[in-house]
Design goal:
By secondary structure, this protein is an alpha/beta fold. It has helices at residues 11-22, 37-42, 55-62, 88-107, 144-156, 176-187, 205-214, 232-243, 254-257, 261-265, 276-282, and strands at 2-6, 26-31, 46-49, 67-70, 112-118, 129-130, 162-168, 170-172, 190-192, 199-200, 202-204, 221-225, 230-231, 250-251, 272-273. It is globular and about 55 Å long.
Amino acid sequence: MRIAVTGATGVLGQEAVEALVAAGHEVTGITRRDSGVPIVEGRGGSAIVADVFDPHDLARAFRGHDVAINALAHVPVGMSGLRPLAWREDDRLHLEASVAIAKAAAEAGVRRLIQESTIFLYPDNGAEWISEDLPLSVRNQAFRPRVKEMRAAVDFATSGRSTVILRLGQLFGRDQHTTHALKATRDGDPILLGKPDQYITLLHHSDAGRAFVAALRASSGFYNVGGEPILKKRWAKDLATEAGSEHPAKFYPEITQAIVGTRLDVQRRSQRVSSLRFMSETGWRPTVGPSTPGWSRR
């Protein structure tokens, strides 16, 4: 298949390009800057420079492709998410670019759209399992960009077209967020939100890349994609092992957690997410877990 990937120079997009190329597909990475061309080509794809906020420019880039994959995101690292306007770029990507991508893909004759999303749209569900049928917790205005992105992806699935929306677990691996967490663990600084006995559902970047390949054979719909959920206190120990620290990663004090705001408050939730639907339909399985030695270098 001919597949176009937006967000192809990000960590997640790069993994998607590499996994798709390895699976035998012809992959075009969409980049907003000339500097992104060698990054895409380094992963085995070809590159097109296009404005992701311009539907007409995107339609030009999408023409001749069977599938469009949107992996655009720009999430602030750590507590920098509390700074004024820290989420402006990420919001704009979901609120404007994702809508433009869905519109352009339809105009260009693309038959399938695969949209990256997140499990953080689910509410805190304690120790109970979360399936795709659990209502989302997105009433706050902070979630408006993600909701609009989701609606645009759903609206794409008309006139014989299909949409697969992947609600990805908390990503970890070789990225700046994980690097920040490992450094904080080594330095003895707090890094985790929530409580030790809550659940977290993680997803390694390499497994996320493979999930985009698996999504090519999934029916239209929403799918959770993550590894086996673990308790956050276990994740604290796994971070310490990977960081080479004698002590588990620390949780932020409750007084600090109380003021993190809606954006980061989602990480305080207990989310025991089931990916059974996606695994059953596509055969995808996670291969790298938080106890896998060297996972931050894979």
